[in-house]
From TrEMBL:
Keyword hit for Transport: yes
One GO cellular component term noted in the UniProt record for this chain: membrane protein complex
Domain named ABC transporter: residues: 4-234
GO MF term set: ATP binding; ATP hydrolysis activity; transmembrane transporter activity
Natural source organism: Micromonospora pisi
Protein's recorded name: Putative ABC transport system ATP-binding protein
Keyword Nucleotide-binding carried by entry: yes
Alphabetized UniProt keyword annotations: ATP-binding, Nucleotide-binding, Transport
Length: 234
């Protein structure tokens, strides 16, 4: 069964003067253990799609299923709960709490699910160690390099053991060497831990790193293929 499934999903925005359709009928299945990129130019609908796939937003048409549940049947708190149990998010600009240590940043998602303080810390330490930051537990974000901050953000996304990790331009604020190590970490989490990784990017060379590439253009999926887009006949 797909971890997340979009069936003919439409998302339009009300602009007062009219409506703009950011997504015009998108069908996509994210399978457990998938490794895919969603790639397309600016304005093509990538962020809108990522928000929908992660349950941060709801479609205006079509069906979206997360963990097999049609999200139309869920109240806002039920959707938030499903999201917190199923999806991890990584953003370009880390979104870490600035005055808070790495270990506390990573433990935060566990507060919302009522995990006790000692277990929260143990899980956060374990997850930071897994991403190579066992020696940075008590550093605050401004005491860490950009690559380290993104690793903290990845650890925070992983601490709840999500089936799917949605990463929106995760290397966008990093130099190429640091970006490379973050991509390698995401690949490792996919191959060794079986986390489905969805890399959202405008950069085709980054997209070429995932096993499957979904190309989005003007709110529609143009190509969804495990073969490199260049190899597909035009
Ligand atoms: P991408 O992430 O590929 O740059 P987006 O999903 O951000 O694309 O945007 C797709 C389209 O939807 C664009 O035309 C954008 O202007 C429009 N859009 C996105 N968010 C909103 C919003 N909150 N209100 C109105 N239009 C929006
Ligand atoms: P980079 O080499 O990526 O530019 P920095 O030179 O900023 O990173 O930092 C190198 C290391 O020193 C990092 O691992 C970071 O954790 C640590 N560090 C940087 N600034 C501070 C600070 N103010 N206090 C404690 N540790 C710091």
């Amino acid at each position: 069964e797909p971890a997340v499934e979009a069936i003919d999903v439409v998302r339009s925005y009300d602009l007062g003067a009219g409506r703009v359709a950011a997504l015009r009928g998108v069908s996509l299945r994210i399978m457990p253990g998938d490794h895919l990129s969603i790639v397309g130019p600016s304005g093509s609908g990538k962020s809108t799609l990522m928000h929908l796939l992660g349950g941060l937003d709801r479609p205006t048409g079509g069906e979206l299923r997360i963990g097999g549940r049609d999200i139309r049947t869920l109240t806002a708190p039920e959707l938030a709960d499903l999201r917190n149990r199923t999806i991890g998010f990584v953003f370009q600009s880390f979104h870490l709490l600035p005055r808070t240590s790495a270990v506390e940043n990573v433990a935060l998602p566990l507060v919302y699910r009522g995990t006790g303080a000692r277990q929260r810390r143990a899980r956060a330490v374990e997850t930071l160690t897994r991403v190579g930051l066992g020696h940075r537990l008590d550093h605050r974000p401004n005491q860490l390099s950009g690559g380290e901050q993104q690793r903290v953000a990845i650890a925070r996304a992983l601490v709840t053991d999500p089936a799917v990790l949605l990463a929106d331009e995760p290397t966008g604020n990093l130099d190429s060497v640091t970006g490379e190590s973050v991509l390698a970490l995401l690949e490792e989490l996919n191959t060794e831990r079986g986390v489905a990784v969805v890399l959202v990017t405008h950069d085709r060379s980054l997209a070429a790193r995932t096993r499957r590439q979904v190309i989005i253009r003007d709110g529609l999926i143009a190509t969804d293929s495990p073969v490199p887009p260049r190899a597909v006949a035009a």
